[in-house]
Give the backbone structure.
Amino acid sequence: MRVFAIGATGVLGQRLVPLLLGRGHDVVVMAPGDRLERLPGGVRAVDADLLDPGITEVLTGELAGVDVVVNAATAIPRDFGAPGAWERNTQLRRDGTVRVLNAVLAAGVPAVVQMSVTMAYADGGDAWLTEQASFDPDPARGSIVEPVAAMEKAVVEIGGDRVAWSILRGARFVGAGTAQDAIRARLKEGTLHAHPDDRYTSLVHVADFATAVVAAVERRVSRVVLNIADEPLLVADYLGRLAEHDGAPAPGTSTEAVREVSHRVSSAAARELLDWQPKTGVLPDGESPL
Ligand SMILES: NC(=O)c1ccc[n+]([C@@H]2O[C@H](COP(=O)([O-])OP(=O)(O)OC[C@H]3O[C@@H](n4cnc5c(N)ncnc54)[C@H](OP(=O)(O)O)[C@@H]3O)[C@@H](O)[C@H]2O)c1
């Protein structure tokens, strides 16, 4: 298949592109930055930016003959709390996604796989969160949740008659190069604690997420939203096992710690529809699963 992968130079893309190539697909990667230079041989690079106002026309031309578009573009800020930190990501999710979809329709691409996040769900406590769970209405999380909702709505609204679409809601990525690196560093320093009221966290190794993307590409599932997550863990359990794995001091609890939004995400639908299951686990690369 001819796969056009937007934003596939990042953490996910570095896992996904070799997998797609290994499965015999013809891969084109679009991104705006220098990381295009590090793509594996045999991949065509398109240096373009989804926030460029003329991008729809450029993309429409690039998408001629493409079988499936994978949209993994994102711009998560380094400092979540900095003023305007989420602006670029919001624009990418809202306007960028619409531009991709307009180009997909104009070029007659038959399928699109859109990345999304389980992070948008409301706190579910100890309840399992399926794809029918509500997004978080808390205004304090609006800058994260509202663009995700708008992005998914744009995909759903393309219908499904002309374009087979799927949305993969990924749990928090773990593995080398993900936010797990910073958690491990803080555990080693002894500066990371769980909040006593923390309940569940849902994680997925980025390598496992990549296999779900490949399955969605190849199976061409349509009109589906799927959670992609490993088995949820209690936050304290996860941090404790990660610390133990790294020989770091056992993290305690502190009421000063930021309380995690509890996400006990069910990926039963993906396991069935995509015949997918996580194989790497949520401990650092190369180690056995928890
Ligand atoms: N990280 C997580 O925990 C997590 C969890 C679940 C789902 N996801 C989803 O998985 C997808 C991939 O995430 P990731 O962790 O691989 O992100 P990442 O490492 O930050 O990579 C982001 C990608 O988007 C590209 N990009 C940035 N701005 C762009 C623009 N204006 N136009 C086009 N492309 C642009 C980047 O290109 P450059 O090389 O130029 O920077 C890069 O290829 C995203 O949709 C994300 O929401 C992430």
About this structure: The mean pLDDT is 95. Residues 6-13, 31-33, 35, 49-51, 72-76, 92, 115, 117, 170, 172-173 surround NAP (CB under 6 Å). The chain has eight helices and 13 strands.
